[in-house]
Amino acid sequence: QVQLVESGGGLVQAGGSLRLSCAASGRTFSSYFMGWFRQAPGKEREFVAAISWSGGNTYYADSVKGRFTISRDNAKNTVYLQMNSLKPEDTGVYYCAVDRDILAKVRLGLGYDMDYWGKGTLVTVSS
């Protein structure tokens, strides 16, 4: 049974940093993208970042470019999201996702349709 377990969320002041982790278990994800989405209160879930299997290709939403960095450790089946210069608008539940092509689905408006989802971790940024 595949499980994605996020950790690292919490309360931080604006301008601060957090590092999220997502550990996957139940299978290996060769050739799969891993990524992060978030959902703010009262809003739809949105794409944040994705990384290819090799780690050589990374993709970010415009709203987080230059502030967030996604990385992965395939030996640990884990993906990370380093979040710096956090803003109150970054507040939300952050979900880990795994899919064969996260970017293609996001571009087609199918961001809700990932192969696997974690249960999320809450990030709150105070002003």
Detailed description of the structure:
- With 127 residues, this protein is mainly beta.
- It has one helix spanning 102-107; strands at residues 3-7, 10-13, 18-25, 33-39, 46-51, 58-60, 68-73, 78-83, 92-99, 116-117, 121-126.
- The model has no long low-confidence stretch (mean pLDDT 96).
Outline of the structure:
With 127 residues, this protein is mostly beta strands.
- Tell me the span between the first and last alpha carbons: 40 Å
Beta fraction: over 45%
Order of helices and strands: EEEEEEEEEHEE
Could you tell me the radius of gyration in angstroms? 13 Å
Number of helices: 1
- Integer average pLDDT: 96
Class by alpha and beta content: mainly beta
Poorly predicted runs: none
Shape descriptor reads globular
Q: What's the story with the biggest beta sheet? A: 7 strands, mixed
Count of distinct strands: 11
Helix content: under 10%
